[in-house]
Amino acid sequence: MEKKMSTSTTKTKDMVTTAMFVAIILAMSFVPYLGYIPLGFMNATIIHIPVIIGAILLGPARGAFLGGIFGLTSMINNTFNPNLTSFVFSPFYSLGNVHGNFKSLMICFVPRILIGVVAYYVYTGIVKLVKKKKNDGKGSAAALAAAGAAGALTNTLLVMNGIYFLFGSSYANAKGIATDALYGVILGVIGTQGVPEAIVAAVLTAAIGKALLHIRR
């Protein structure tokens, strides 16, 4: 009986925690400037941070769910507040003869769903390795930082490469780029935006995740 009550309490806590992370993702997505950190040369997206930390705390399934919420907010924003390249994220937006379609959903959802999954397994994998070496304190911080960076890079790499392979010529035309030069531009975005965002994610995940894991324990 006592075991059943404990399991029920844990499930309730997980549901409440999941709802909290969903609320944070929604706020960061729809409140202007809340989901970004200005670095001077760019605004680093941090909307994926709740997905990463949520996955570490709650497991890969809930992490994938939170990533799906992130993807949904991206689709909504690109549908109702579109820019020239919103067709790659929303099947409901078109630019001239270019229309968003099922491939837009793949770019919008698949990378975001995988953020939490990748982050969780990077974190748990490093924690297991460090435990074997009996270095728990430093290992936890390193695992959190690595999970943050891995989750952020998962998003950037899959989104940008998805755009190249699924919407290459259309995206190049919308951006006014020669098709032959497109992948060079993609690599530039990964380097100038994806890498700084991964560093920010590593720092924030290590700081916030360590505190939340301590509270949860």
TrEMBL record:
Keyword Membrane: yes
Bilayer-spanning residue ranges: 12-31, 37-58, 104-123, 144-167, 182-208
Record keywords: Membrane, Transmembrane, Transmembrane helix
Descriptive protein name: ECF transporter S component
